[in-house]
Amino acid sequence: MTLAWISQDSSLPSISILTPPVYSPGDSPVHLAATKFPHHLEHNKPQSLIHTEERRILTTQRKRSWIRLHGTPLKFDEKANPMSHRRLIVLLFAGLILIVAGETTSCPIELSPSMVVAKYGDRVSVNCSTSLSNFTGMGWESSANGTGLKDVSHLTWTVDSLTEWGIEPMCYVVDQDEKYCTEKLQVVLYSFPEDISISSSSLNGVMTEGETHNFTCDIPNIAPVWNLTVRWYKDSELLRESTLNSPSKKPTSQSLFYRFSPRRQDNRAAFRCEAFMDLGPYGPQLNLSSKDYSIEVLFGPDINCSGLTVHEGESLEGKCLVAGNPMPEVEWLKNGLPINLSIPLRRNDTGIYTVQAEGRFEVNETFWISVFYGPEKTCQSTLTIPEHTPRFSCSEGSPQPSEIWYKDDEEVKIPETLTRRDAGQYIIRSFNSLSSINFTVNVIILYPPTDIVELENAEVRLGGTLDLKCSSMGGPRPDYSWIYYQMANVMEKTEDGVSHLIIKNATGLNMGSYTCHAGNQEGNVSKTVRVIVKGAKQECPIQITPDTMVLQYQSRAQRATCMPTESSNVKTIYWKANHRWTYDTEWTPDTNEDWDPKPVCHGIFNGIGGCHKPLHYTLYKTPDFVAISSVEDPGSAYEGMVLQLQCDVVNVAPAQDITIRWTSFRDNKTIDLMEGNDTICDKSEVRSPVSVSCTTNITLKRTHNGVNIRCEAQLNLPLAGGHHPPSMFSDSLNISVCYKPEINTTKLAGTVPLFTGYDEDLVCEADGGQPLNISWSYMSASGPKNSFNKTLRVSAAGYYNCTVSNPCGSTTHMVKVIFKEDYLPLIAGFVALTVIIISIIFIFIYSIYYKNTKMRRYSLKNPKLSTHNGNVAHNGWDMQFPMTKLS
Known about the structure:
single chain; flat; mainly beta; five-stranded antiparallel β-sheet; five-stranded mixed β-sheet; 887 residues
């Protein structure tokens, strides 16, 4: 027996073939199940059947291969006879022939009803039956109230309250071969709202004509949406119909929009939306409409005016019609003030009128309304006008009257512009279509001042007096004013229409430009001349405080102030520094970067014009360090050599003001070694920090040996904060000079006497500045001999040569030793005898002197003790005895 299932859904794959058991010789029977289950049945396969199959597999003791019903590929027992494959292909081919011939086998399941359309929460009951006579059982597979496998021929699936959206219950039947078929129940669960609402994007339904508004229809808690149709109505007119198509089965809230641009004809129209749901032959047709939504259309105000020609005595009532919603309030204005339309217009009511309509907004329409009336005189009897005044009319009316002018009883034509020649008395006749008038006018012409005369460039000597004159004609007579650098020695006065400016005791500040202005109500003229003060220089009246500024790099900045010496004459004071202008009286440098700002204070003054003064500004930086070196090796210098010394000053500013001093010393004592030597420096003109190298040359002498030299860098600047910038010194450079030795002949004479019986030491000393080699050479009785000691002891006459050498040369000094007698003992005896004789004579003379002057005779008769002087201190031993000299 072969069974075949064909899916009626084109989206479901393939055919499933049911075949009887196939046996191969020597093998256990092999059962072939359905090769493939349709996807929608495979996923919905009842769980009870799955458990039954698994139990059956576990209790089977035969070795066999079979196809699981989970869509896996067909597998055979590895020991199956190859003939089994050919038999299977034959059976499959036979099954295909049966299918093509139309012998299909359907699932013998009947559902009653075949489809359920239920409202959310309603009771649902569906009966499932089968026409099979031999089957194991049947059941309902469902997420709600599934029955499991029952041994009945019909089975009812019941849910008291269906609330599960998207439920898909399935009835299945299992035959005796444990094959099964299923039938899915189509369930439509719906929810329909009890009320829907309509709203708009406008406030309270108030809309403006021509603007676009959105109506919103809110439908809450509805399902399924794919059966929903929404209709829009204005009054009874269907405006729009739309059907929603959404796959969602669960309830959703829908908001639909309808865009609408109202016109004034739509005022007070009622709008509503209607929800319609058609659930097909198994379900109801549901329809629900929202409440009416009335709108109010705002428009206008519109102003329509006609017939604005008004004669004197007419009113403005009914001249303009105004419409709008809300009904506008209308008001007529003239010159911004409301008027009464019922009052007749007079001739002076001609002008600009405004119709103001205020509804939802304010609309203004402006009109010119002329009130016709006869001519009237507008000129005074005496008319004063400026020269070159355009031709004018002396009367007015509506319509504008015509005029005829008469002068000296003759009709004259007034020119386009009036000049001083047109002054005089006129008779004027003015007329229009209503009336005519005659009147007299006296015309006076005004004109501006003429060019200034008598004022010219002038010169005056220092300390002299100068009178500048300024004169002009005009009607009326012009007034005069002067612009110059005002000082106490300058005065102004006006006589007979001429202005005088008098300079007394002229100075350099009186030098400059002088401008005279002559003006009246008709115009102004001016003239500028220049005054030169001979013997004086042009001065700039600017004072800078301080006038010199010396700042150290990265120090606290100072402020320079520029002020005029006379504040009444200044127009502008400003600074220029770093190619930038600062319109202020103060300038503060940046001590981090303003190395060469070139600060200059500029001033613009009356009369003088522009002048300027510089600020003497210096930003300095002491060197990072100072180093001394020599081009040649100072350790290999020799006498007479020219030694070049170099002093490197690193990172100093400004380099132009650096001065190098050379100092030499030995044993902490200064030596004037470098005096008179020229120093050459490669100074840069850049004022920012640079390094400077300076060199000098010295010719070495032996006196330079052992001298230490250093260089000093000093910035020669004005006092910075009351003191000069500190100097910086380099380390010391030691000079070692090699020179030819020189023997000290003051200690080693050329001839040395040698007394008989005595030895003489010859000491050879020399100055060489380097380690010296000293040697003696002489001729003895045994032949030439040499000694390498500084001291040579000699006992014989002869010639002795001392040679001193060092790396720079050698020197030889010859000493002649000669024999002499020794008279010293004789001289000593003679001197001793002479001393003895002189001593004896001295003692004799002194004894005679002592006997005659110191030795006397005294008497102690009647001695009297003297009392102590109270003013003299006594020690008890100085008591005096009175004595009498006898002889």
